[in-house]
Amino acid sequence: MENNMLTGEVPPSMDSFIDLIIMDLHNNSLSGNFSLDLSNITNLEFIHIGENNFSGPVPVKMPHAMEVMILRSNQFEGNIPPQLCSISSLIQLDLSHNKLSGPIPKCISNITGMGGAKKTSHYPFEFKLYNKGQDLEYLDYGLLRTLDLSDNNLSDEIPRQVFSLVQLKVLNLSRNHFTGKIAREVGDMKNLESLDLSSNKLVGEIPDTISSLSFLSFLNLSSNYLVGQIPVGTQLQTFDASCYDGNPGLCGAPLPICIESNKHGGNNDIDDDDSFTQSLYFGELVKITAGHWDFIEAIFCSFCKITVAHYDSVKLV
């Protein structure tokens, strides 16, 4: 029933379709609270009600076998309900472009479908998913693991439990009000292909563990308050500089090189990279000074010759 011009509220009788596997109502003009009790539709594994005008709290009356919940681009508000953590089979959760507030519940680590290897169903049908900075079309959701909470009013620190969802391929927490540092545990997400933490209030250095994400092909950390040198990794230097924009304290390729030495953990020793950089600067300074000295010496010698010649001419007179 997607991509129509349906209006009004969803009729309560729809929760009696006990054999439903997929419910797709996206891209309509449906409104009101989505209050259907779908918990008894035990075969329901996929629900997509995005791009509508639903309001009120995020619906939580879902079967425990639910694997995909796409609720993006509505008017849902309030906190992310902890009841979602009990849907352990979820492999895709998209709550982006709503009006949600508050923190991410720490119980999110209970969603084992995103954290552990789990066999999922495969249904060959087309659907769109915002991934790697663009809308992409997919024919099968069974291989995807995504968490998209972008463009809300979420706040507080990003809990470490998020980074325990090690099967995720896509993590998008951009355009919120998250604070604090990026936890080192981000490096545990070995399957991550797309990471977007842009337009938040994150501080501190980018953890060096992020350089171990060998499958990462999209990264956006722009518009935060991150500082220090960008960790050296096989792909971190290959990303466009725009993915680090809006962090005046960041330096290192692909941004300009770091001038001041970085200090780690209170250690005042200069690391190898800084030593090499400073050596380069010192070498250039020596070259410039030597060049200037040669120039001064040449002028001085010329002055000496002129003085001697003048003295000789005076003697002759």
Chain-wise SSE layout:
Blueprint: E1 7-8, E2 22-24, E3 29-33, E4 46-48, E5 53-56, E6 68-70, E7 75-78, E8 92-94, E9 99-102, H1 112-115, E10 127-131, E11 134-138, E12 146-148, E13 153-157, E14 170-172, E15 177-180, E16 194-196, E17 201-205, E18 218-220, E19 225-229, E20 249-251, H2 272-316
Parallel strand pairs: 1-3, 2-4, 3-5, 4-6, 5-7, 6-8, 7-9, 8-12, 9-13, 12-14, 13-15, 14-16, 15-17, 16-18, 17-19, 19-20
Antiparallel strand pairs: 10-11
Care to describe what's here?
- The chain is an alpha/beta fold.
- It has one domain (7-258): Alpha-Beta Horseshoe (Leucine-rich repeat, LRR (right-handed beta-alpha superhelix)), CATH 3.80.10.10.
- The protein is 15% helix and 24% strand.
- It contains 2 helices and 20 strands.
- It has helices spanning 112-115, 272-316, and strands spanning 7-8, 22-24, 29-33, 46-48, 53-56, 68-70, 75-78, 92-94, 99-102, 127-131, 134-138, 146-148, 153-157, 170-172, 177-180, 194-196, 201-205, 218-220, 225-229, 249-251.
- The strands form 3 sheets. The protein has a 10-stranded parallel β-sheet, with no helix packed on it. An 8-stranded parallel β-sheet has the order 2-4-6-8-12-14-16-18, with no helix packed on it.
- Strand 10 (127-131) and strand 11 form a beta hairpin.
- It starts with 6 loop residues before the first strand and ends with a helix.
